Amino acid sequence: MRGEDRRAEILRATLEVIAERGYRGASLSAVAERVGITQQGLLHHFPTKEALLVAVLEARDAWDTGGSRERGEPWPLELYASLVDYNATRPGVVQTFSALLGESVTEDHPAREFFTHRYTSVREAATASLRAEFGDRLPGGLTPEEAAPLLIAAMDGLQYQWLLDPGAVDMPAAFRAFLRLLSRAD
Description:
Largest sheet: none
Distance between the termini: 58 Å
Number of helices: 9
Strand content: under 5%
Mean pLDDT: 89
Helix content: over 70%
Number of strands: 0
Structural class: mainly alpha
Radius of gyration: 18 Å
């Protein structure tokens, strides 16, 4: 197997193991076993568990955005809604992301820096998207800078509620309702 393909296989297996056991309960040996390689073979591709974790998180973001965030292209708000729709079809990935995000708020967590940087980047992207959609003021009077953290909070908060009670929370419908609120005047 080519190195690039093997790395992708390792990242998928890591997502599965973290979804099942959480980051702290996931071991390099469990990931290696799932991929069918030795732990030493795994360390050839990712020298530490922390490096593997960050690679998984970066890959997840790249899968979700198709690289558009890195190119600085503002997303239409409908694309955010499409991402929420897509996330509703993959609870394991959403659960892994949510668990890692929750764990990362502790000072010593290896993903803390990743998530801190990610949220800075995501807020900037959301600000650009809101500005492209509404200009310098949303209909309710908020600036794009004020509304961007709310947009991200709605997405992430809905994910937690949906994971806990999927029958009670229609994540895609609730997010589209939130977008309608953003576009309404007082």
